[in-house]
Amino acid sequence: MAGYRLFGADTSPYSFKVRSALRFKGLDFEWVARCAANEAEFRELAKTPTVPLLVSPEGKVNQDSTQILVILDRAHPEPAIQPDDAALAALSLILEDYADEWLNKAMFQQRWGQMPDRDAASIRVLVQINGGKRPRAYKTPAKQIAQRMLARLPLVGAEGENAPALEASYRQFAQLLNAHLKEHLFIFGGHPSAADFALAAQFQQMLTDPTPAAWLNDRAPFVVAWCENMADPKAGGPYASLEALAPTLLPLFEAEVARTYLPWANANGASASCQKKRFSVTLETGTFEQATQNYAARAFQKLRDKVRSVKEADALSAFLKDAGAAEFFAEPSRTKQKTPAA
């Protein structure tokens, strides 16, 4: 039986996320760099114009990186990419969604919202489209790519008004993660998880952009080393206990995840449920306003359901409470209906 085929791009963090997981599991796959030459085949397979696109040996197609990791883990249980411990697995899912839906905003803003990063990235995209070669007449198409991506900033909430909050957020997270990785090979000990694949993919992209790369190399060397390791990760031991991880893991949640991503995700979900086009949320850095993201709202609701299903685990409940995150996963209140008068 033939192996997997992964249509991806070197400028796509979600492609990196899936490729790293395939490598970790030791699965046979073909990396198909999406370009003009294979665009017709890609469009024939794709339901959306985005990568990654994974074709299974049976011919099934999936373009959702989170779903792909779950499917791979079910089809190929060893080595696992989620801890057996319910509390650690839930925390891994929270960090995965943080990476996919919040940290990605910072990555996108750092790449396309400033110079010289935007010009450098536009040339990389052009080379990618052209099958790995820079065309002779590259300046005009590269400028068109840059302008198109600049126009997309508001769609993902990375417009200029939000840039200071996003930059402060990713830098604080990186420094807290750096302190954690100084003590642990991966986020949950000696074994990578979905959180590692998702978070590393975003930081790996930042390391290709001049401005965030310079900052990360200077301020977060353990994060940089971890990113290099996550390109083709190998387990160095078992998952650790939550008790052993808490001293450096809890600050990640308390000082960053619970103060930026969770309030944002909660507000975005509420906006989507009311079918509003825009929403705003007050963070410690000020007001954060953007267009409602319906996919992110659905993803957060699924995350909430999964976390709530294991919330009876005392260790998870205590950790979320200590992190100031418990309220975002509380069961929705149910208003008692009054019995009509006879």
Automatic annotation (TrEMBL):
Coiled-coil ranges per UniProt: none
All residue ranges annotated as the GST N-terminal domain in the record: 2-80
Alphabetical GO CC annotations of the entry are:
cytoplasm
Alphabetized Pfam families for the sequence: GST_C_2 (PF13410), GST_N_2 (PF13409)
**What parts of the sequence cross the membrane?**
none
Q: Which CDD domains match?
A: GST_C_family
* Top-level taxon of the source organism: Bacteria
| Gene3D superfamilies per UniProt | 1.20.1050.10, Glutaredoxin
InterPro entries, per database record: Glutathione-S-Trfase_C_sf, Glutathione_S-Trfase_N, Mito_Protein_Transport_Metaxin, Thioredoxin-like_sf
Any idea what this protein is called?
GST N-terminal domain-containing protein
